[in-house]
Amino acid sequence: MSHDVAIAGVGMHPWGKWGKNFVEYGVVAARAALADAGIPWADVDLIVGGETVRNGYGGYVAGATFAQALGWNGARVATSYAACATGAQALDTARARILAGLSEVALVVGADTTPKGFLAPNAGERYDDPDWLRFRLLGMTNPAYFALYARRRMDLYGATSEDFAQVKVKNAKHGLSNPNARYRKEVAAHDVLSSAIVADPLHLLDICATSDGAAAVILCSVEYARKHGLSDVRIKAISTVTPTFPNTVIDMPLMSTESSAGGVPEFTFKQSIGQAAYEEAGIGPDDVDVAEVYDLSTALELDWIEDLQLCKQGEAEQLLRAGDTTIGGRIPVNPSGGLACFGEAVPAQALAQVCELTWQLRGQAAGRQVEGARVGITANQGLFGHGSSVIVAR
Amino acid sequence: MTATTPAIEGWFTTGPEPALIGSACTTCSTVFFPRTAGFCRNPACNGDEFTDTELSRRGRVWSYTDAQYQPPAPYIAPTDPYVPFALAAVEVPEGIVILGQVADGYTVDDFQVGDEMELVVETLYTDDTGDRTIWRWRPVPVEPVETKEA
Ligand SMILES: [Zn+2]
């Protein structure tokens, strides 16, 4: 039995700092996706919202909040939270109901309004909360975790600050004509290298910003898509696997790993996310034409390229230097411009990746098109054992 | 009247040879840090009893960075103006990688991935009860060659 569902429509609200309520962004993205699909809101029988934790009660029940904003239509509702992987988990919830025959057309929406600067933990004295403790006991910020991974690439594989800067240069170029990107300006390696060091070896321009933004995806059954002559882009896999014990790579916001003394699993957590997606889709890394990966930092893009098995461990810099990951190269990575051009809007980000791949596969990514792309993969890391990878194909 | 106390209770010992305190499962002997209680997180184990165990005081650098800008609260800066500090993730022989600040006076230029570090206890910040201490990683000097200081 096929586990495919169809992507009927996609839409976004441009990323930026707009100072508005997240609901407004979500409605704009949802209406854009409905218009793209040519499906009236009244025909949607399931809405799944990506929860946002910074917008009060309306954010905790995001699915219902968006349903009310669009006008109650009696649809079933769900809300998902999985940190950065929220959008993919919401998508998976919608897919499951469609594949079970319980829903036919689902709207999945994520939207956020984000604060400026470092993402800090909730207030209060919370000695049993690792996210609070890492700040109190160590002063360990999110960029500091990204920096640990970056430094390891340098000491183990000979990566350089220039390599990291070139990831930013590439992504800035990719995003230049993306109408939904927040930053649409060329960046030179020199700009990155002369920006302040935040957490050695990462410079300010190596690290993604936080943004306002929204993305929406309309999923439907393959039968519904055929009957209505909708797009032939299909979701082949949604991986939301948890780690396998022991998780031996230090993960935000923890201060330690589990012990490797009793042996380690075949795949690290991030590798297992991609591996599960390939297995579910019944394809391999060689089949992939384009990838959207979570470049919270420039160096993390290189980690993801390896974790998705698009090259061997320690060889991502070689791909980058050869231009293989640039549009026109062997395996373009982040043709949208990635987080480097968008900044992160947590509950929307995994959906934005799927929007981009849908446009790429339909040949509608004007100014950033990966020619002939038929298979795309996303990768994204959350917190507390969440992460996701989505494979789309036509 | 003020006293020197750990910034968090029960995570490390103090004295001349301080050590982090972990928990060893009495059923499968897996060691966890920070300490744990109630249930073992090894999926193949139903253990629910643990004994405290002091972790090795030395380990190897897994990776490292620093904090060039003052982290947000609840971090408490010990000095004004703020002075950047280094951070290291160190793998101890028990197979656990543990984050810590790097000891005062050292920067990221003083060690690399794979270098040996030793656990020390230093002041993290001072409040109205006195100095609050924390574990830190200090580079272990490579065996010194005999030299005469001028
Ligand atoms: Zn056990």
Strand content of chain A: 15-25%
* Percent helix range of chain B: under 10%
Series of secondary-structure elements of chain B, N-terminal to C-terminal: EEEEEEEEE
User: What is the CATH class designation of the domain at 56-139 in chain B?
Assistant: Mainly Beta
Ranges of chain A where pLDDT stays below 50 over 5 or more residues in a row are none
Q: Over the alpha carbons, how many angstroms does the gyration radius of chain B reach? A: 17 Å
Q: What is the string of helix and strand elements of chain A?
A: EHEHHEHEHHHHEEEHEHEHHHHEE
What is the average of the pLDDT values of chain B? 94
Instruction: Tell me how many strands of chain A there are.
Output: 11
**Overall mean confidence score, pLDDT of chain A:** 96
> What are the segments of chain B in which pLDDT stays under 50 over at least 5 consecutive residues?
none
Describe the structure.
Chain A is an alpha/beta fold. In chain A, 37% of the residues lie in helices and 17% in strands. Chain B has a domain of 84 residues: OB fold (Dihydrolipoamide Acetyltransferase, E2P) (Beta Barrel). Chain B is 0% helix and 39% strand. The radius of gyration of chain B is 17 Å and the shape is globular. The complex binds zinc ion. Zinc ion binds next to loops of chain B.
Draw up the topology in text.
The complex is a heterodimer of chains A (394) and B (150).
Chain A: E1 5-16, H1 22-37, E2 46-50, H2 56-60, H3 62-70, E3 76-80, H4 86-99, E4 105-112, H5 130-138, H6 142-157, H7 161-174, H8 189-193, E5 197-199, E6 202-203, E7 212-220, H9 222-227, E8 234-239, H10 269-281, E9 290-293, H11 298-307, H12 316-322, H13 338-342, H14 346-362, E10 375-381, E11 387-393
Parallel strand pairs in A: 2-3, 2-4, 9-10
Antiparallel strand pairs in A: 1-7, 1-8, 4-7, 5-6, 8-11, 10-11
Helix pairs in contact in A: 1-3, 4-14, 6-11, 7-11
Chain B: E1 5-6, E2 21-25, E3 31-32, E4 50-54, E5 58-67, E6 85-91, E7 97-102, E8 116-127, E9 130-139
Parallel strand pairs in B: 1-9, 7-9
Antiparallel strand pairs in B: 2-3, 2-4, 5-6, 5-8, 6-7, 8-9
Bound molecules: zinc ion.
The site of zinc ion (ZN) has 8 residues of chain B, from loops.
